[in-house]
Design a protein that fits this description.
With about 280 residues, the protein is mainly β. It has 3 helices and 17 strands. It has one domain (about 10-284). It has helices at about 185-190, 210-220, 255-270, and strands spanning about 10-20, 25-30, 35, 50-55, 65-70, 75-80, 85-90, 95-105, 110, 115-120, 125-135, 140-145, 160-170, 170-180, 200-205, 235-240, 245-250. Strands 3, 4, 6, 7, 9, 10, 12, 15, 16 and 17 form a 10-stranded mixed β-sheet that branches. Strands 2-1-5-8-11-13-14 form a 7-stranded mixed β-sheet, with no helix packed on it. It is globular, with a radius of gyration of 18 Å. InterPro entries: UreD (IPR002669). One of its GO terms (molecular function) is nickel cation binding. Belongs to the UreD family.
Amino acid sequence: MTEIPSSGWHGKLNLVYADRQGKTLLTHNENQAPLKVQRPFYPEGQRVCHSVILHTAGGVVGGDRLFFDVHLQSNTQVLITTAAANKIYRSNRLQAKQTIEIKVDSGGCLEWLPQEAIVFDGAIYRQNLRVELAANATWIGWEITRFGRSARGEKFLTGEWRSHTEIWQEGVPLWIDRQWLPGSEEVFHSPHGLAGQPIVGTFVYVGQAVSVETVQKARSVFIPDSRLQTADSRIGVTRLEHGFLCRYRGSSTTEVRNWFTNVWQLVRMSLLSRASCLPRVWMV
């Protein structure tokens, strides 16, 4: 679609993390409203820095431009999440756009775990995420998206959603994923679209080759939501050259979030030698 210039929010967040004698510090924090980051937390010791991103405007509207630039210097260990679900409101014919650029230097590990996004009917939204990994760097990330306020019976029947993700390592593309979902009744019910399910999710681990057993374990920790009357959720786990990928399509945020959390904890314990530690903002 053709973008129309607007005077919406032009938010920026520039974060740099550095290792200082075994402690990961947020050494540079530059922000422009409505984006900001809370004071770092260290619930699992000084080596792993937990950061929570805030969107003070409460949601994204047509014409907004949000830009994130995150740099993990060598040997830093960082977990980044968001304070609440991201709401993408109905558009005034303008596209809202979010651009995320992440660089992880050698020995660094970033766990990028934002809370889910709710895309309202009529929203026009695009997200670009590019990750640049050095050798011996690790990336764990997920994206959970609900199309329409389904608790109110709303479906995503107008507007459009685009998500473009690239993960590179030393100039080599490891995983490139382009998704486009135009809002319509046909796409909502099509088996090649949402198949009548309002939620999709993607979990990616990139760091080292994984075994078939790890992929099987990732599948086995999926637990269907017992509150659902029908078991229409679909999941898939695929090995990548330097990691693996999980996909979800269903109707329960609790179901996909619990599964991704279980897979994340599996990765932490078996591949990162790190104990379980849920961000405290998730408990609110």
